[in-house]
Each structure stands twice: as structure tokens, then as C-alpha cells.
Amino acid sequence: WANVTKSENGCWIWTGRFTQETGYGVFYRSRQTGPRKQIGAHRLSWELAHGALPHDGLIVCHACDNRACVNPAHLFLGTCADNSRDMVVKGRSVRGARARSAVLTDEDVLTMRARLRAGDTNKAIARDFGVSEPHVSGIKHGKFWKHLLSA
After folding, report:
1. Is the pLDDT of residue 95 over 80?
2. Could you report the per-residue pLDDT of 25-60, keeping only the tens digit for each?
């Protein structure tokens, strides 16, 4: 707990080591036999408060959505699917223009849909926006950029 600072919002912020890949706090604990083992700081916090995870397939998830938080009251057990569902429900999923590989902006997609309604061809729109015709078709049929369908 020497590597934890309690914040005003109730999160207990891990101030120790973090992984560059995921941004989660990590802790190294020694093993009785063999080299020391890296464990997520939030998982260690869960185990200290509640004991070992009951079975494989469960992970420790953050209700507060703060990767640095290790407050056991902000953590819950779930599957990867539960964690993904939680992310989508809270609007944290990477989609549309927020995706690293995105070529289009939300405005581009809304303009494309307006042009499609006006009768422009997939080919002309694809050329103008630098995307493939199948991508334009996916936008047209609501397969891609679904989050903008109600816009």
C-alpha cells in the first residue's frame, strides 16, 4: 500500500510501476520456486481484499474506468466479454474517428450518407473520400459507423 495514493473521488491511485503496453499498474511478487512474477496491481488489490480469483476465465475489471485505481470497492470480477460489454455501455469503445486506423471523420460519414440519399454512386463517393467502394456500401447499409445512424 506504500505505492497507493487515495484521491478525493474514491479511487486509490497506484503510484508504482506501470506497463507501457496497457497502462495498468504492475507489482512483482516473489514466488517460492522460480523467478518473481508480475501481477496487475488491481488484481493484487482484489486478491488482498477478497482472496484468489474463484476460477480461470475471470478477470478483475474497473467499475470506475481508471486503470490506475486499485480500490477494491471499485473492482469487480467478470469475463473478458463482461468487461467489453461494460466498455461499450459506458461509451468507451474505440469506434469511428477515434480508431487509430480511421481515415474518415464523423462529418465525412454524415456527408457520405447525405450524398448517398441524394443518389450519388458508391464509386464517386469512394473516390472523393479515398476509401473503397465496399466501405461506402458498408456505410450505406449501416454495417459500418453504426453509432452515427441516429445522427
Report:
1. no
2. 998 877 776 677 888 999 999 999 999 888 888 999
Closest by CA to 41, choosing from 26, 22, 54, 56, is 26
132: CB partners within 8 A, 6+ apart: 126
Residue 147's CB: how many other CB atoms inside 10 A? 14
- Decide: 68 and 25 in contact? Cβ < 8 Å: yes
- pLDDT at residue 151 tops 70: no
Give the CB-side neighbour count of residue 141, counting CA atoms within 13 A: 7
At residue 33, the 3 state secondary structure works out as: coil
Q: 113 and 140 in contact (C-beta within 8 Å)?
A: yes
Q: How far is Cα 90 from Cα 108, in angstroms, rounded to an integer?
A: 25
Backbone φ and ψ for 29, nearest 5 degrees, come out as: -120, 145
Helix residue ranges per DSSP H, the chain: 41-50, 80-89, 106-117, 122-129, 133-140
Helix (H) or strand (E) holding 60: strand 59-62
% of the chain surpassing 70 pLDDT: 91
- Do the beta carbons of residue 66 and residue 74 sit within 8 Å? yes
